[in-house]
Each structure stands twice: as C-alpha cells, then as structure tokens.
Design goal:
heterodimer, A: mainly beta, seven-stranded mixed sheet, four-stranded antiparallel sheet, 0% helix, B: mainly beta, six-stranded mixed sheet, 11 strands, globular
C-alpha cells in the first residue's frame, strides 16, 4: 500500500512570496490533516478535513494560509504572503476514518525555508 | 500553553538496556495517547497507543503506561536496539466534536549507545 505522498520535498522562497504544497493521502482515507513543525518543536495541527469538508481549522492563520481538498482526495496548502516565521516542515497525514483512535499516517513532509 | 510536555530533550541509553521516555499532559479532555517515532527527513511513524480506559498497552518490545491521576504517560523500550535511535513524540487527542487532530510534545531524542 502506497503511503502519503507530498511534494515538493524542499522549497526555498523569499518573504512576501507565495508557495503551495501538495498532498496525496493513502487511497480511501477519509480524513486528511496538515501539520506545521517548526525546528525543535512537535508538529502543530493547522487544519483537518473529513472528505472535502473542514472539521477543524482553529489554528490555521487564515490571513495568509489557505487549504483545500477538492473531491475529497488530494489537498493543497498555500501560504500567501510568506513570512520568515513560516520556515518549517509541513506534514500531511491521513487516517481511514473519523474516530479519534484511527491511526494517522504521515508523509515525509515539505521543508520550507523563507529568506 | 503547552498541553503535552516532554521535559527531556534527549536521552542516552546503552544497547540492551531499558529506555524510558516520559510525557505529561494538562488537558483533562484528552482520552487517547500515542507515541510516534521520527527519523531525520522522514515523517513521524506510529509506534503504540493507549486509551484512557487502560493503564498499560504492550506491543513487542514497546510498552506504554498511563497514569491518569498524575496526567503522565511513559514509553518503555526493552531491550533497546541501535535502530531505536530516533526522536520520539508523545501525542494526545480527544477534545471532541469530531476534531481529532493530534497535540504533540516537543519530542525526546533517544540515542542508543553500542
């Protein structure tokens, strides 16, 4: 079974530019998550989708971050405009169901550097 | 406000001995706890979990203990092997409403010495 795919793996941009990350979850997984992991910290949830609907986006900085999950499969996370403090690894995860005990499987992440 | 705390940034253990990683939490709403393992340049990998209705869960060399009254959990690895060297994250979920995103600690870097 293929795992969670993310691209690009690395991205370097200058502040005030925009950037987009792509995630393809495990086939058939209903729930998709985006996490931000700043160096030295644990991952922090940004947004949770169930199919193509948003379940939780309480920690998403909505003035600059946006995310969508069209057709309940792939998802994109966008930052516009980027700030220096957005430098982090952006992790996508998926789980089969919506119960709290469903295992979340993580992709390898996209490392973003904002100069 | 850190709701999940791992107070040891790193831990060094000799191969073959027991590794004990600790985690504390503050949110009483959490009812499910997990440990993830992370190698460099990879995403976190699920290791083991425990529900709040249990106090122990075992899977091979890995055992997680939960002390609800103390809001504390620990991961025991016996015996420790070189491949166990990684960053271990404690995570929790269960705030309800269908929102089951995980709240992570900062991680403990486990180093297994040969």
């Amino acid at each position: 079974e293929a795992g969670v795919a993310q691209s690009p793996r690395y991205k370097i941009i200058e502040k005030r530019q925009s950037v987009a990350f792509w995630c393809n979850p495990i086939s058939g997984h209903a729930t998709l998550y985006w996490y931000q992991q700043i160096l030295g910290q644990g991952p922090k949830l940004l947004i949770q989708f169930q199919n193509n609907g948003v379940v939780d986006d309480s920690q998403l900085p909505k003035d600059r971050f946006s995310a969508e999950r069209l057709k309940g499969v792939d998802s994109t996370l966008k930052i516009q405009p980027a700030k220096l403090e957005d430098s982090a690894v952006y992790l996508c995860a998926s789980s089969a169901g919506t119960g709290g005990t469903d295992t979340q499987y993580f992709g390898p992440g996209t490392r973003l550097t904002v100069l | 406000d850190q709701q999940v705390k791992q107070n040891s940034p790193s831990l060094s253990v000799q191969e073959g001995r027991i590794s004990i990683l600790n985690c504390d939490y503050t949110n009483s709403m959490f009812d499910y706890f997990l440990w993830y393992k992370k190698y460099p340049a990879e995403g976190p990998t699920f290791l083991i979990s425990i529900s709040s209705i249990k106090d122990k869960n075992e899977d091979g060399r890995f055992t997680v203990f939960l002390n609800k009254s103390a809001k504390h959990l620990s991961l025991h690895i016996v015996p420790s092997q070189p491949g166990d060297s990684a960053v271990y994250f404690c995570a929790a979920s269960g705030v309800g409403g269908g929102a089951d995103g995980l709240t992570f600690g900062k991680g403990t870097h486990l180093i297994i010495q040969p």
